[in-house]
Amino acid sequence: MIDLKQYGYIETEKPADGLIPARITAVHRDRYDLISENGAGNGKLKTSVYYGREPHPFPTVGDFVLIKEVDGGDCQIVQTLPRKSYFSRMDPKPGGYTEQAVAANFDIVFIMQSLNQNFNLRRLERYLTLTWQSGATPVIILTKEDLIDDPAEQLLQVEEIAAGVDIITTSAKTGVGLDALGKYLQPGKTCVFLGSSGVGKSSLLNTLMGEEVMLVKEIREDDARGRHTNSP
Questions:
Q1: Which of 63, 69, 129, 214 has the fewest CB atoms inside 10 Å of its own CB, making it the most exposed?
Q2: Whole-number Å distance between alpha carbons of 143 and 131
Q3: How large is the angle between the packed helices 121-134 and 152-161, nearest 10 degrees?
Q4: DSSP-derived secondary structure for 61-89
Q5: Where are the alpha helices (DSSP H) in the chain?
Q6: Contact 159, 129 (CB under 8 A)
Q7: pTM for this prediction
Q8: CB 184, CB 213: distance < 8 Å
Q9: What is the sign, positive or negative, of the torsion defined by CA atoms of 228, 8, 176, 118?
Protein backbone atom coordinates (compact mmCIF):
# COMPACT_ATOMS: atom_id res chain seq x y z
CA MET A 1 0.00 0.00 0.00
CA ILE A 2 1.29 3.46 -0.94
CA ASP A 3 1.62 6.19 1.67
CA LEU A 4 0.18 9.27 -0.05
CA LYS A 5 1.95 11.49 2.50
CA GLN A 6 5.14 10.71 0.57
CA TYR A 7 3.46 12.56 -2.29
CA GLY A 8 2.67 15.60 -0.16
CA TYR A 9 -0.85 14.73 0.98
CA ILE A 10 -1.98 16.25 4.29
CA GLU A 11 -5.31 15.05 5.62
CA THR A 12 -7.41 17.92 6.99
CA GLU A 13 -10.56 15.89 7.48
CA LYS A 14 -11.45 12.25 7.05
CA PRO A 15 -13.06 11.46 3.67
CA ALA A 16 -16.62 10.18 3.58
CA ASP A 17 -17.12 6.43 3.55
CA GLY A 18 -16.28 4.89 0.20
CA LEU A 19 -13.95 7.71 -0.85
CA ILE A 20 -10.15 7.81 -0.74
CA PRO A 21 -7.66 10.59 -1.58
CA ALA A 22 -5.54 10.52 -4.72
CA ARG A 23 -3.15 12.83 -6.56
CA ILE A 24 -3.45 13.77 -10.22
CA THR A 25 -0.24 12.96 -12.14
CA ALA A 26 -1.35 13.70 -15.72
CA VAL A 27 -4.35 15.24 -17.47
CA HIS A 28 -5.74 14.03 -20.78
CA ARG A 29 -8.81 15.27 -22.63
CA ASP A 30 -11.42 13.52 -20.48
CA ARG A 31 -9.29 11.12 -18.44
CA TYR A 32 -6.85 11.58 -15.59
CA ASP A 33 -3.82 9.60 -14.43
CA LEU A 34 -3.67 9.43 -10.66
CA ILE A 35 -2.04 7.69 -7.73
CA SER A 36 -3.69 6.60 -4.49
CA GLU A 37 -2.96 4.27 -1.61
CA ASN A 38 -3.78 1.42 -3.99
CA GLY A 39 -1.27 2.46 -6.65
CA ALA A 40 -1.46 4.12 -10.05
CA GLY A 41 -4.74 4.26 -11.92
CA ASN A 42 -7.06 6.34 -14.06
CA GLY A 43 -10.09 8.41 -13.29
CA LYS A 44 -12.96 10.33 -14.86
CA LEU A 45 -14.93 13.25 -13.46
CA LYS A 46 -18.32 12.75 -11.82
CA THR A 47 -20.57 14.68 -14.18
CA SER A 48 -23.03 15.99 -11.59
CA VAL A 49 -20.17 17.45 -9.49
CA TYR A 50 -18.06 19.05 -12.22
CA TYR A 51 -20.77 20.10 -14.68
CA GLY A 52 -23.54 21.09 -12.28
CA ARG A 53 -24.80 24.53 -11.31
CA GLU A 54 -21.90 25.15 -8.91
CA PRO A 55 -19.09 23.04 -10.36
CA HIS A 56 -15.93 22.10 -8.51
CA PRO A 57 -12.63 23.38 -9.98
CA PHE A 58 -11.47 20.99 -12.66
CA PRO A 59 -8.44 19.00 -11.46
CA THR A 60 -5.01 19.72 -12.88
CA VAL A 61 -1.58 18.11 -12.47
CA GLY A 62 -0.67 18.04 -8.79
CA ASP A 63 -4.20 18.36 -7.45
CA PHE A 64 -5.37 16.16 -4.61
CA VAL A 65 -8.83 14.76 -5.19
CA LEU A 66 -11.27 12.34 -3.61
CA ILE A 67 -12.13 9.30 -5.69
CA LYS A 68 -14.54 6.41 -5.61
CA GLU A 69 -13.02 3.22 -6.93
CA VAL A 70 -14.94 1.24 -9.56
CA ASP A 71 -14.36 -2.48 -10.04
CA GLY A 72 -12.90 -3.13 -13.47
CA GLY A 73 -13.07 0.49 -14.61
CA ASP A 74 -11.82 4.02 -14.14
CA CYS A 75 -12.14 5.61 -10.74
CA GLN A 76 -14.76 8.31 -10.29
CA ILE A 77 -13.34 11.69 -9.27
CA VAL A 78 -15.87 13.33 -6.97
CA GLN A 79 -14.07 16.31 -5.40
CA THR A 80 -11.06 18.59 -5.93
CA LEU A 81 -9.46 19.34 -2.58
CA PRO A 82 -8.27 22.88 -1.67
CA ARG A 83 -4.95 23.95 -3.23
CA LYS A 84 -2.02 25.40 -1.30
CA SER A 85 -0.35 26.72 -4.47
CA TYR A 86 -1.00 26.79 -8.20
CA PHE A 87 0.01 28.21 -11.56
CA SER A 88 -2.74 29.34 -13.92
CA ARG A 89 -3.28 30.83 -17.35
CA MET A 90 -6.15 32.67 -18.99
CA ASP A 91 -8.13 30.25 -21.13
CA PRO A 92 -10.35 31.74 -23.89
CA LYS A 93 -13.98 30.70 -23.57
CA PRO A 94 -17.16 31.85 -25.28
CA GLY A 95 -18.02 35.17 -23.67
CA GLY A 96 -14.54 35.92 -22.36
CA TYR A 97 -11.49 34.50 -20.62
CA THR A 98 -11.48 32.24 -17.58
CA GLU A 99 -8.64 31.25 -15.26
CA GLN A 100 -7.36 27.71 -15.84
CA ALA A 101 -5.00 26.07 -13.36
CA VAL A 102 -2.11 24.21 -15.01
CA ALA A 103 -0.24 22.88 -11.94
CA ALA A 104 -1.09 22.72 -8.25
CA ASN A 105 0.19 21.91 -4.77
CA PHE A 106 3.91 22.40 -5.32
CA ASP A 107 6.30 23.57 -2.60
CA ILE A 108 9.38 24.71 -4.50
CA VAL A 109 9.73 26.36 -7.90
CA PHE A 110 13.17 25.96 -9.43
CA ILE A 111 13.50 29.03 -11.65
CA MET A 112 16.09 28.11 -14.24
CA GLN A 113 18.22 30.65 -16.09
CA SER A 114 21.25 29.76 -18.19
CA LEU A 115 24.52 31.67 -17.89
CA ASN A 116 25.10 31.82 -21.67
CA GLN A 117 23.36 34.13 -24.19
CA ASN A 118 19.94 33.16 -22.78
CA PHE A 119 20.63 35.05 -19.53
CA ASN A 120 17.74 37.54 -19.09
CA LEU A 121 17.10 39.46 -15.87
CA ARG A 122 13.68 40.77 -16.93
CA ARG A 123 12.48 37.24 -17.61
CA LEU A 124 13.87 36.14 -14.26
CA GLU A 125 11.95 38.93 -12.52
CA ARG A 126 8.71 37.82 -14.20
CA TYR A 127 9.26 34.23 -13.08
CA LEU A 128 9.96 35.38 -9.53
CA THR A 129 6.70 37.34 -9.47
CA LEU A 130 4.74 34.36 -10.81
CA THR A 131 6.26 32.09 -8.18
CA TRP A 132 5.54 34.37 -5.23
CA GLN A 133 1.97 34.80 -6.48
CA SER A 134 1.55 31.03 -6.77
CA GLY A 135 2.15 30.51 -3.04
CA ALA A 136 5.36 28.49 -3.45
CA THR A 137 9.00 29.24 -2.59
CA PRO A 138 11.38 30.17 -5.43
CA VAL A 139 14.91 28.80 -5.80
CA ILE A 140 17.00 30.15 -8.67
CA ILE A 141 19.17 27.72 -10.62
CA LEU A 142 21.80 29.26 -12.90
CA THR A 143 22.69 26.55 -15.41
CA LYS A 144 25.54 25.83 -17.85
CA GLU A 145 28.28 27.03 -15.52
CA ASP A 146 30.73 25.06 -17.65
CA LEU A 147 30.20 27.41 -20.63
CA ILE A 148 31.59 30.57 -19.02
CA ASP A 149 34.85 31.46 -17.33
CA ASP A 150 33.46 33.25 -14.27
CA PRO A 151 29.77 33.59 -13.27
CA ALA A 152 30.48 36.24 -10.61
CA GLU A 153 29.00 39.16 -12.58
CA GLN A 154 25.75 37.37 -13.44
CA LEU A 155 25.48 36.07 -9.89
CA LEU A 156 25.75 39.60 -8.50
CA GLN A 157 23.04 40.83 -10.87
CA VAL A 158 20.69 38.05 -9.80
CA GLU A 159 21.35 38.69 -6.11
CA GLU A 160 20.33 42.33 -6.59
CA ILE A 161 16.85 41.44 -7.88
CA ALA A 162 16.27 38.32 -5.78
CA ALA A 163 17.09 39.30 -2.20
CA GLY A 164 16.58 36.41 0.22
CA VAL A 165 16.13 33.82 -2.53
CA ASP A 166 18.49 30.82 -2.65
CA ILE A 167 20.66 30.86 -5.79
CA ILE A 168 22.49 27.78 -7.04
CA THR A 169 25.01 27.70 -9.90
CA THR A 170 25.00 24.34 -11.71
CA SER A 171 26.27 22.36 -14.65
CA ALA A 172 24.53 19.16 -15.72
CA LYS A 173 27.68 18.32 -17.71
CA THR A 174 30.24 18.58 -14.87
CA GLY A 175 27.93 18.02 -11.90
CA VAL A 176 28.78 21.35 -10.26
CA GLY A 177 26.09 22.47 -7.80
CA LEU A 178 23.85 19.41 -8.14
CA ASP A 179 24.47 18.28 -4.56
CA ALA A 180 23.00 21.57 -3.33
CA LEU A 181 19.61 20.57 -4.77
CA GLY A 182 19.34 17.58 -2.43
CA LYS A 183 17.87 19.50 0.50
CA TYR A 184 14.87 20.50 -1.65
CA LEU A 185 14.27 17.12 -3.28
CA GLN A 186 12.72 15.36 -0.32
CA PRO A 187 9.80 12.93 0.15
CA GLY A 188 6.54 14.79 0.66
CA LYS A 189 7.79 17.83 -1.26
CA THR A 190 6.82 18.75 -4.81
CA CYS A 191 9.11 20.80 -7.04
CA VAL A 192 8.38 22.56 -10.33
CA PHE A 193 11.06 23.40 -12.90
CA LEU A 194 10.31 26.71 -14.62
CA GLY A 195 12.36 28.22 -17.42
CA SER A 196 12.42 29.13 -21.09
CA SER A 197 13.49 26.86 -23.92
CA GLY A 198 17.21 26.13 -23.99
CA VAL A 199 18.08 26.74 -20.32
CA GLY A 200 18.75 23.07 -19.65
CA LYS A 201 15.61 21.79 -17.87
CA SER A 202 15.66 18.45 -19.65
CA SER A 203 19.40 17.94 -19.16
CA LEU A 204 19.15 18.72 -15.45
CA LEU A 205 16.17 16.42 -14.93
CA ASN A 206 17.90 13.58 -16.78
CA THR A 207 21.03 14.04 -14.67
CA LEU A 208 19.07 14.08 -11.40
CA MET A 209 17.08 11.00 -12.40
CA GLY A 210 20.13 9.11 -13.63
CA GLU A 211 18.40 8.23 -16.89
CA GLU A 212 16.91 9.93 -19.94
CA VAL A 213 13.36 10.77 -18.92
CA MET A 214 13.15 13.97 -21.01
CA LEU A 215 14.12 14.45 -24.64
CA VAL A 216 17.06 16.84 -25.09
CA LYS A 217 17.38 18.95 -28.25
CA GLU A 218 20.45 20.77 -29.52
CA ILE A 219 20.32 24.56 -29.05
CA ARG A 220 20.79 27.05 -31.87
CA GLU A 221 24.25 28.59 -31.99
CA ASP A 222 23.05 32.10 -32.95
CA ASP A 223 20.83 32.73 -29.91
CA ALA A 224 21.44 29.74 -27.59
CA ARG A 225 17.73 28.80 -27.65
CA GLY A 226 16.27 25.38 -28.23
CA ARG A 227 13.02 23.90 -29.41
CA HIS A 228 10.44 23.12 -26.73
CA THR A 229 10.84 19.53 -25.59
CA ASN A 230 8.86 19.76 -22.36
CA SER A 231 6.10 21.75 -20.68
CA PRO A 232 7.57 23.83 -17.80
A1: 129
A2: 19
A3: 40
A4: TT-EEEEE--TTSPEEEEEEPPPS-EEEE
A5: 47-50, 121-134, 152-161, 201-209
A6: no
A7: 0.83
A8: no
A9: positive
